[in-house]
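Extended Data, panel c. Modelled sequence:
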Amino acid sequence: MTEDRSILTRAATAPDEIVAYGAEPEHVADVRHAGERGARRPLVVLIHGGFWRPAFDRAHTGPMAAALAGAGWTVASIEYRRAPTVPDHTIDDIGWALESLPANIRDHDGRVVVMGHSAGGHLALWAASKRPVPELCAALALAPVADLQLAHALNLGGGAVLAFLSVEPEERADLDPRWMPPPAIPTTIVHGEADEVVPLSVSQSYVADHPEVRLVKLPAAGHFALIDPLSEAWPAVVGELERLSS
């Protein structure tokens, strides 16, 4: 099959507000509120993908974030520094966003679910293992780059792992979810069996070492279907978020 990338350029309604979580230009989040329904659920901190590269930003998560807000979650779609060869900037930003945003956004119950796609899924799994703040209660990783060593061996994204880390992934096992401690919070991976960008085998490798993590495999679903509210895969994604939010 050919991956449907239409979600990457689809227009979305504007966020309700943009909230800063730090001093850098990238330290911002597009926030969409869910009102009373959101006040009874965790805040969703949404991390976009794009193989950690500057060319990809949070704009393409707009339709996804709007759909989640419409379904009853307040969503903060974060930006973060994507500086090739300086991975610690990216990691620091995820920690700062999780620490700062909940206190500065209304319409949630004080808990946080971190949700990420592709490279953002890698960052969500990092957060699940580190749990940088006690408010973080669950993680949902969609087609994540969950095993950096395997992703490097498969040359995913045309050398994206090496470009991100600047060293062989074995030298930064502290940033490789497969080699990190088990998640400290309930964690689910959703991965399409027809994913041509990040193969299902990457998540399967991770779960083999972290069997406590739930892996949901979606037949015939590609990489971008998991962030597309118009796709047949979308109800399964929302269902897993509902389960983690209970």
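The first strand starts at residue 17 and ends at 20. This feature is highlighted in the accompanying rendering.
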